[in-house]
Structure formats: C-alpha cells, structure tokens
Amino acid sequence: MASSIGRRFASRTARQLRFYSTASPGVRSLGVVGAGQMGLGIALVAAQKANVPVTLVDASQAALDKGISFAEKLLAKDVSKQRITQDQADSARSLLRPTTSISELGGVDFVIEAIPEIPHLKFKIFGDLAQICPPHAILATNTSSISITKIAAATTKDPKDMSASSRVVSTHFMNPVPVQKGVEIISGLQTSKQTLDTAVEFCKQMGKIPSVSADAPGFLANRILMPYINEAVICLETGVGDRDAIDAIMKNGTNVPMGPLQLADFIGLDTCLAIMKVLHTETGDSKYRPSVLLGKMVDAGWLGKKSGKGFYDY
Ligand code: NAD
Fold first, then answer.
1. Is 172 a catalytic residue?
2. Could you report the per-residue pLDDT of 62-76, keeping only the tens digit for each?
3. 127: Cβ below 6 Å to ligand 1?
4. Which part of the chain is the 3-hydroxyacyl-CoA dehydrogenase NAD binding domain (predicted)?
C-alpha cells in the first residue's frame, strides 16, 4: 500500500516537474533601465543576439536620443563591415523601444537595471520594479559593486516575503557590451536557483559566456580589476611614472589592449571611485583605499571619455 502511494506520489511529482519545466516562461521580452553606455549596449546585444523586443527606459529623453542614435551608428558600422545584413540591422533596430516611463515594463519577462552606481537610486528602482513588473519577471542589476542581497532586500518591506527578492540577481556585463564576451552572474542570499538558471540561460542566448560568482564586495571582476586601476592612479599621483609610461608598460608588457589609465577613462572615473569606496568600506581593509587623485578628478567633473576629459582628452 505504502509503496503504491509512493509510486503515485512519484509519478505525480514527475508530471508536475514536467508541467513546471514546460510552463516556465522563456524570456520573450526584456526591459532595460538606464540607456547609458552599459544599458544601451545590453539592449542592443539582446535585440541582435537574443532577438527579443527591448523596452529601454531612461529618466532623460536626451540620454535615450543619444543612445538610440549611437545604436544606429553601431548597426550601420556592422552593415558596412559586412558583419550583418541591412535586414538584420533593421530588425534589431525595430526591436528597440525607448521610453521615459518605467510603468511600460508591466509586460516584460526579464529586466536589467543599468542606472548609475548610487545605492539609494538602485534601491528605489528595485522597489518600483517589484511593483511594476509581472510576478514571474526576473529583476537583474548590472551593478559593479553593490551587494545583490541589499538590492534584493529593497524589493520588499517584509523580509519573509521573498516573492520579489528571490527573483533578483546580478547580470554584470562588461564594457563595451557588444565586444566583451564575459558576464558575471551573482546571486544574493534570497536569489532562487530558478532565477540564477534563467539568468545564465538568457546571457547565453545573448551570445555571452557567464561566470557565476558570490555576492562579495567587488564580486570577481572588480575585486581584481579595480585595485589594479587604483594602483596605477596612485603611481601617477606619487610620481612613480607618468601617464604614458604607466599605460605603455602594462599594454606592451602584459599584452592587454589598453593601459589601466585609459581603461579607467573608458569605464568612467566616477564608476571606478564608487567601486573602490564599496571595496574599502565593505571590507574595512586599507589596501582598498581609493587614490586621492581619483577623487579629485571626479570632483573636477573629469569622468573620462563620457565627459570628454579624464587622464586623456576626448
Ligand atoms: P551611465 O552614467 O553611462 O548611464 C546611466 C544612465 O541611467 C543615464 O543615461 C541616466 O540618465 C540614467 N538614469 C539615472 N537615473 C535613472 C533613473 N532613476 N531611472 C532611469 N534612468 C536613470 O552609467 P553606465 O556606465 O552605463 O553604468 C551603469 C551601471 O553599470 C552602473 O551600476 C555601473 O557601475 C555598471 N557598470 C559599468 C561599467 C562601465 O564600464 N561603465 C561596467 C560594468 C558595470
């Protein structure tokens, strides 16, 4: 008798598992919040590679206009270099839908936030996304350094209610998104396995190579990269070498495509400073102290390529 109940239970569980796996919605539409250098790249690659419609939200109409015109330039360049056909470019462009209204994310299956690296802004957006997006939607962040557990906690006032926090994960794309293959996938304490698996699968659909890492300050990529950049700025600040010597020795001596100071300009000096501050405060370890010069350059508004001036002029 017991074994027949056991068999019935086992077969019902197997049926349910089959039902859940086929009913589990694939990612048929994407929302991206923030149309800056990362958000725009993520939206474009999702349209091109995963072939999904992308609702691209930014608080600024000017940022959306600039982003869409940049996407059109990138697509035209791909056509002129015969990497894609005109039809493929037109199809990718038609999948991008820019808007200033976050409430238009009410129908998406997956959303990726790429607004500035400012904790209270991210926490507010995730509280909003939990209300606006459908109950099955994955809520991903592109944060470079903010704890995924903290971002997930911001989705609810009741920590026992994990209906939204279990759907929060990080998909940390690398810059420039159309070029860099790697993406870091990070779970918070609340993230469910299904959320993690969906994020890994969707990043693969976008043609990326995911690496899974833990929710620790800086995760993997920035834990290693940012102290390297910060040390290069300290070398400049203390006169160990000038800008060109620092970049040249690393470029020519370690076969990287650009030196650390130029790379910092490309990433954005404000982003580099914000990440160093997180590493420093979260670990309490003085080895992560941000360079004074880096802080001064951010105070001056010299943020690198995006502001036209950093260690180099653009
Ligand atoms: P960015 O400054 O280029 O773009 C941010 C965009 O967000 C801007 O267009 C801004 O108008 C918009 N925005 C600001 N507040 C908003 C809001 N409340 N709602 C909607 N839009 C809003 O920044 P970025 O370099 O693209 O970085 C975005 C995120 O990606 C950050 O968390 C950053 O740490 C991370 N990241 C950056 C890099 C990099 O190399 N730049 C690499 C990996 C991850």
1. yes
2. 999 999 999 999 999
3. no
4. 30-213
